[in-house]
Amino acid sequence: MKNKFSDNRISFSHKYFRLFLLLLFLTTNIMAQDYKIVVAKKGDGIYSLLKRNGLSPSDHFNPFIELNKNKLGRNNTLFAGQSYSLPIEGEMTNSIPVTGTTYSIFGKAYEKVIPVDNALNGAVYYLVSGHGGPDPGAVGRYSNHTLCEDEYAYDVTLRLARRLIEHGALVYMIIRDENDGIRDESYLTPDKDEKCYPNHTIPRNQVKRLRQRKDAVNKLYIKHKGSFQRLIITHVDSRSRGENIDVFFYHDKRSKTGKKLASNLQQTFKKKYDTHQPNRGYHGTISDRNLYVLKYSYPPAVFIELGNINHYRDQQRFIRNNNRQAVANWLAEGLLIDFKNNK
């Protein structure tokens, strides 16, 4: 005589075993979700990589880090040539909180700034991009396009500001264009609507223009007296078409701290070139120069020339957005070193 209880138990076990297999199959399929694989280009950061692939940086920053946490460098940097998995649109964005602060000055694609660390906590930076308003600065030609110094210096400076904020710094953009934002186009459309902090029209007269930005910096310096403060001035040089130059630096001859600041930046660029282009060499110089804003501004300052707007190879440093981002990243790294060496 069959044991009815035993038969029922076997039937019950088989049913649940089949259910277990079904759940395992479904779970495996979910876990085996196919992610698009992309390769980071030179100068890429997480934001530019996501944006280039049609994903919102503010929504997918943290999911990207979760997917690729074993492939990221210090401070979540990317490695050129490395393959990375892209988050799927909508996936994980509700389960992983995206924190950060919105800064409209960086534009829609870059306005959400998510902290990386507090390495620059207590540091105050005044960023002054050259010219602006009625003065475009140096003007170069690339194919049929006009390259204006003020637009490219401003874009690099915005990218630098964003990196410094990611590391916990307090940053003032002294020259501001509220509707440009960080732009990834190669050819940046010139305009004349830049303002000087907090919202002053930039005068046409050069002396008045320089005095205006110097006064803005010095007022803020007094406000933050006692804090670690630095002034960073960015320009693009204009030389003959045949002269290829590296990023180089000026400081006020009376400022030992300004000279040290310039040296920290120069050494960072040298190390970067030694790593990424070991056979190229780097020839960026440091020298003192009697420039108005360097001379009369209160905080230790550095004046940076980003390259020759008329030279073909230097122009690649400007027109390629990844190169503009790389320059900003290297400047930020040099400023991190300067802060650690001086605080």
Biggest sheet layout:
6 strands, mixed
Which class best fits the helix and strand makeup?
alpha/beta
Q: How many DSSP H or I helices?
A: 9
What gross morphology would you assign? globular
The radius of gyration over CA amounts to: 26 Å
Low-confidence stretches: 1-13, 19-32, 92-98
Would you tell me which CATH topology of the largest domain applies?
Answer: Aminopeptidase
Looking at this structure, what is the CATH superfamily of the largest domain?
Zn-dependent exopeptidases
Q: Report, as a whole number of angstroms, the end-to-end distance.
A: 89 Å
For the record, the CATH class of the largest domain is Alpha Beta
Keywords:
Aminopeptidase; 3-stranded antiparallel beta sheet; 15 strands; 343 residues
Describe this entry's structure for a reader.
The protein has 343 residues and is an alpha/beta fold. The protein folds into two domains: 37-98, no CATH class; 102-342, Zn-dependent exopeptidases (Aminopeptidase, 3-Layer(aba) Sandwich). The chain has nine helices and 15 strands. The chain has helices at residues 4-31, 46-52, 57-68, 149-166, 206-223, 256-276, 292-296, 312-319, 321-342; strands at residues 37-39, 83-85, 101-102, 112-113, 123-129, 139-142, 145-148, 170-173, 175-176, 195-196, 200-201, 228-237, 248-251, 286-288, 301-308. The strands form five sheets. It has a six-stranded mixed β-sheet, sandwiched between helices. A three-stranded antiparallel β-sheet has the order 9-10-11. A two-stranded antiparallel ribbon has the order 1-2. Strand 10 and strand 11 form a beta hairpin. The chain is globular. Mean pLDDT is 87; it is low at 1-13, 19-32 and 92-98.
